[in-house]
């Protein structure tokens, strides 16, 4: 059945390093409040196991933990339980490698890493096909880049390359909040209503 | 052909009034910088004709115009042309009725209004079916609510009700930035790659 996702073990990571800046240089980007909220809510909607926020910068880790803590402890926790349920999915880690380790620790399998690239390559796989592959019971870790995207080296190291998201135009500058939502929906959205 | 969108005339409106607050009361919500950027970029990606920002509050209209102006005039325009191309789609209007009028003025046809509701009703239509209907050459205006969603009265006045977005869980609290991206992709995304 196309809408049976019971065997899916998908986690996501929002990568703040290594990413590119406007000039194509590798940088560590800043954590954004709304990225955490939006991706957590999308992750919760689509049954994602864990949402890793990957940044090696200590002050950015502290900022991320402060945002999460605000909604998962004390007053915020009771004021808005929906936000709590979403933000509880987040784990702050230094690097993508630490997210991989954490998935290993949870399910004793090394997750396969998946990136979306703005460019189609020989190795790109379509969303429809990957939607099927995701059901094979193995853990997968989907990487989303911040700033101007994940560095080429990290992209090359990934196990899977999803094809770009095509709209109806040549314009290809979706926000990470929009792109991640679309990708989760293409991979895990119920097509036949609820 | 499923991927032929040449006859589609779709506009979107981000509704700041009348929307609901946490307690179900009708309010006018504040304009958010990132809503404008994200929805404009998604709109540009999916070939949306105009992105209306509807708020009757003069200070909020000024804020919206300031954000748009920053990226479509002077320094911002040349610093980041991608943002300019997206934000140029925005028109600030008082009410949804003014957005309807503006579409009329452009194409001499009254657009049909479309809402997404978190609840499925007898009148709800599936995304797949509406994807086909959208090709009929008529103008459509898709309404997205801010805060806790568009007021019941405005929902009832709409011509079309899209079914809710179903993920894989019962959690149903996507951000408007994520939900609007998913809806545009379901209605207009190219399924067969580019």
Describe this structure in words.
Two copies of one chain form a homodimer. The first copy, chain A, has eight helices and nine strands. In chain A, the strands form two sheets. The first copy, chain A, has a seven-stranded parallel beta sheet with strand order 5-4-1-8-6-9-7, with helices on both faces. Chain A has a two-stranded antiparallel ribbon with strand order 2-3. In chain A, helix 6 packs across helix 8. The first copy, chain A, is of the alpha/beta class and 194 residues long. The longest helix of chain A is centred in the middle third of the chain and has 15 residues, at 58-72. In chain A, 41% of the residues lie in helices and 19% in strands. Chain A has helices at residues 33-45, 58-72, 74-79, 81-87, 96-107, 127-133, 152-157, 176-188, and strands at residues 9-15, 19-20, 26-27, 51-54, 90-93, 112-116, 124-125, 139-145, 160-162. The mean pLDDT of chain A is 93. In chain A, strand 2 (19-20) and strand 3 (26-27) form a beta hairpin. Chain A binds chain B through residues 5, 8, 34, 37-38, 41-42, 44-47, 82, 85-86, 120, 126, 128, 163-169, 171-175, 177-182, 184-186, 188-191, 193-194, and chain B through 5, 8, 34, 37-38, 41-42, 44-47, 82, 85-86, 120, 126, 128, 163-169, 171-175, 177-182, 184-186, 188-191, 193-194.
């Amino acid at each position: 059945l196309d809408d049976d996702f019971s065997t899916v073990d998908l986690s996501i990571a929002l990568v703040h390093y290594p990413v590119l800046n406007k000039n194509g240089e590798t940088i560590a980007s800043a954590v954004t409040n709304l990225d955490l909220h939006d991706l957590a809510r999308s992750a919760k909607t689509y049954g994602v196991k864990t949402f890793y926020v990957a940044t090696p910068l200590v002050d950015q880790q502290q900022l991320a933990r402060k945002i999460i803590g605000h909604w998962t402890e004390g007053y915020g926790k009771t004021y808005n339980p929906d936000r709590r349920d979403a933000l509880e999915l987040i784990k702050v880690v230094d690097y993508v490698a630490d997210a991989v380790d954490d998935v290993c620790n949870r399910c004793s399998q090394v997750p396969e890493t998946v990136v979306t690239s703005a460019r189609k390559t020989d190795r790109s796989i379509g969303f429809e096909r990957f939607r099927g592959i995701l059901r094979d019971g193995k853990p997968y870790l989907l990487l989303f880049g911040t700033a101007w995207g994940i560095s080429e080296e990290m992209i090359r190291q990934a196990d899977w390359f999803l094809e770009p998201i095509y709209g109806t135009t040549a314009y290809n500058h979706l926000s990470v909040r929009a792109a991640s939502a679309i990708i989760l929906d293409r991979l895990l959205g119920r097509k036949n209503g609820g």
